[in-house]
Amino acid sequence: MVSDILIDVFEDGLFAAIAAIGFSSISNTPRRAYLTCALIAAAGHSIRYVLTMPDFGGLHIIPASMVASFATGLLAVLFAPRIKCPAEVCFFPALLPMIPGMYAYRTIEALLSCLYHTREEVFGHYFYLLAYNGLTCSFIILGMVVGATIPVFLFKKLSFTATR
Amino acid sequence: MTSETTVLSAESGIAGTAAFLADYAALLAGCGATCIRIEKNTGRMASAFGLKFDIAVMPAHVYVTVRENDNGESCVVVRKVAACGISFNLNALLSRLSWEVADNRLDLVSAVERFDRIRLTKPTGKWEVLILTSLANASFCRLFGGDAYAMLIVFFTTLAGFRLKQIMLEDGCDVRLTFICASFFSAAMSAGGCIFNIGATPELALGTSVLYLIPGVPYINAVSDIIERHYLCAFSRFMDAAVLTVCLSLGLCAGMFILGFKWF
Fold it and tell me: What is the pTM of this model?
């Protein structure tokens, strides 16, 4: 049981790390920052995964994302001086694997379904899906960004002297 | 502004310093730095040069005002934000330059020389980005619960779509049109997984196949700018990102409709 959970958490962290390296490369991140981005992404995504597990309280994905993003931002601020990069270089790519892509996709899917159906009860169903997925997606992104940005402003001196 | 003009202006006192600081701020803004970083880095260098300094960061331009402390002579320089694309490498190099100027008391000519060298920094290799992005999007699919087939579909559709994006941007196509085409291409290819029932989670492959196009950095920068009350820049960044998100959604929908894939 415990080993299964650990394997799941490890797998989640591993794929988040690969995703972070890929998204780092799109943003022309210095190669020396890849490993740090990957480790921070793995830690952040694993924290969210654990927080949303029913065995660990089953936190809703919105607060779980915010807590995980805060941890991501904190780790980025702490590790950025080691690789002589600004904190955002570390936490931007590390945050991207947490973007709620499927909620965004389902929002668009529901929007098109709304346009296609005219019967009130069917339209109402898809409108509910549109609102549910759209609001969840928006608030996850908002929570993520605010959560990750807070440490940068809390530890302003550390954040803005990382490249010194 | 070319590197030659920067070097020439470096020889002309306060106007040269203002031109350098404006060029620096414009490049930093173009590479995706937040407004607070632009203000801090540029202000740090102005202090090291012994000058009073103000900066206004606007969505498309930066306005730099430099004043001498003693006689009050001042100079205002406006520069267009550099169109260099998001680059954290440039961001890190420019931030380091600001500290070198502040801590090592680099003179203006040395600072300009280093700045010109930084400006010539090459971006990450396109093949490296292509492979890493495809792997990243396939991993993204796994994080959403996709199986091995879905990951494979996403890997290849991202490879194709991202390559198309690279080719179109190299040819100077409009970025919005590029996003629509790349998204359409990736979505149309991955819709094949749903049509032919490949694997257990083909719909996840379809949903994930366009996510490499999501402009995450401008969204995050917009919130950071809001926190520092740079509302104009925040709104501009948010709208840029929102337009691109709409474009990728359009491509996704068009790809699905053309292949006759229906949710209904």
Answer: 0.86
